[in-house]
Structure formats: C-alpha cells, structure tokens
Write a structure and sequence with these properties.
mainly alpha; two-stranded antiparallel ribbon; 9 helices; 8% strand; MLTG-like; cell wall biogenesis/degradation; membrane
Length: 262
C-alpha cells in the first residue's frame, strides 16, 4: 500500500468518524428537543375533588404520590394561590375543571397555581364573588348531573337555609368519608364531621369538589320553587317537592330501584 493511499484512507476514516459524531449529536439534540416540547394533557372534570386532582396531577407530572398535594398546601400557605381568607388555605374549589398542558418545565406548584388562576377568572365571570356561593355550587355539582336540576338543588339549599333546616345532603357525607355512593346509612348520618349536614345546620366549611361552569351559573341563578326535598330515583330522574310524604314515596321508589339493581 502506498503512502498516498494510506493517507487517503485515514482521511476517509476521519471523515466517517466526524459524520458519525454529527449524526449522534443530531440524534441527541432531537431527543432533547422532543423531551423539552413533549406535552401531557391533564383533564380535570367538573366535580372532581382536590384529592382526585392531586392524584391525576402526580401521574401526569411523573412524581411520587402526594407530591402535588404537598405543593398545593405549601403554595396556599405562602399566598401563591390567592385564596380568599374564608378558604383557610384549603384549595378545594379552586382547582378549576379543564384541560391543562403538562410540559417538562411544569412543576406541581406551577400547575396548581394555573388552576387557581383559572378558577378566579371563571368565578368572577360567573359572578361567584363569595365563598358561600362557591360551596353551594359544589353541592349542586355533586347532587345533579344537568344544569336544570342544579338550579333546583340550589333552590332547595336556599329554602332549607331560610327555614333553618339542616341541608341533609348525602354528597357532603360522601366527601367526609372520602367516597362516592348512592346509599347513605343511618350510621353515616351520625358521623362526627363538620361536613355531616344531617348533624350540623348550615353549609359545610368548604366546597366539596371543584365545580364547573354550569354549577357556578346555577349557584347564582337558582330556579324558582318551594322545594325542600329531592331524590334521584334513577339516572336522569331527579324529583323535587315541598311535600315530605311525597318525598318518602319517591325515596321508596329509589330503594326499590337499588334492590333491583337498576
């Protein structure tokens, strides 16, 4: 092999090595770019509780369980969520329903701060300007599955408060017990919790979920009516009345539906 040929081969080998390095660097940059711009959608549905939102956020952010909850509590104490004084540092009701984009730079704190900022805007737009109205909206969200029924639930709440009657809302007991069920037992109504609206008159101390647009609107625009009672006999069939005896008959229909598994 001549000296000239050997030099040419070395040059070609060097060029090949440089090309390989360039390709590797390009792949690394592309992957880094993809990672930096990769997004994960986080969907918060109307009526989800803070605990449910935190769990979903932990998964979207790929952080250990409980991380977002701790971040939200710290942010609330530090005033970063700009909660009203009446909330006493509890973000429940201020993790507004919607789709949030989680990127590589998104942190648990920035995520909950974005939710709270969105909540403040939506509450203002819906004329929900006091904490009590937000609490009412959350109950309506939990008790009804459409706007019309939500407005009636709000009216029942207002009618009961006006008469100094306990609200007796199963949804608030479910919140206290950290569950979601249609059946409330006598023992459930005796639990020692400020969210037990069978035992304690007035509104619970905080929202019981994060209400969406329709529930917020219903809370400020209740239907007209004298209703004091309601029961959802089956999905899509919620009945309202001011007659206790009629209410009991409908409750029995509900119980029959449950026994029949329908």
């Amino acid at each position: 092999m001549t000296t000239r040929t050997a030099k040419r081969q070395r040059r070609l080998a060097g060029v090949a090595a440089l090309c390989a390095l360039a390709v590797t660097a390009a792949v690394v940059l592309i992957r880094q770019y993809q990672q930096e711009w990769a997004t994960t959608p986080l969907v918060v549905s109307g009526g989800q509780r803070a605990a449910q939102v935190y769990e979903a956020a932990d998964e979207a952010l790929s952080v250990s369980a409980g991380t977002t909850k701790k971040a939200a509590e710290r942010a609330a104490r530090a005033g970063k969520l700009k909660l009203p004084a009446a909330a006493k540092g509890n973000p429940e009701g201020y993790l507004y329903p919607g789709t949030y984009t989680v990127r590589s730079e998104t942190t648990p704190t920035s995520l909950v701060a974005s939710m709270a900022k969105t909540a403040r805007k939506r509450h203002t737009a819906a004329h929900v300007d006091d904490y009590r109205t937000l609490v009412v909206a959350s109950i309506a969200q939990a008790e009804a599955d459409n706007y019309t029924d939500m407005t009636k639930v709000v009216r029942v709440i207002k009618n009961r408060l006006a008469r100094d009657m306990p609200l007796q809302m199963d949804s608030t007991i479910n919140y206290a017990l950290g569950r979601s069920t249609l059946n409330t037992s006598l023992a459930d109504t005796r639990i020692d919790s400020p969210y037990n609206t069978y035992r304690h008159k007035g509104l619970p101390p905080s929202p019981i979920n994060n209400p969406g647009r329709e529930a917020l609107k219903a809370a400020t625009s209740p239907a007209d009516g004298d209703w004091l009672y309601f029961v959802t006999v089956k999905p899509g069939d919620t009945r309202f009345t001011d007659d206790y005896e009629q209410h009991l008959k409908w409750v029995e229909e509900f119980n029959a539906e449950q026994r029949n598994g329908t």
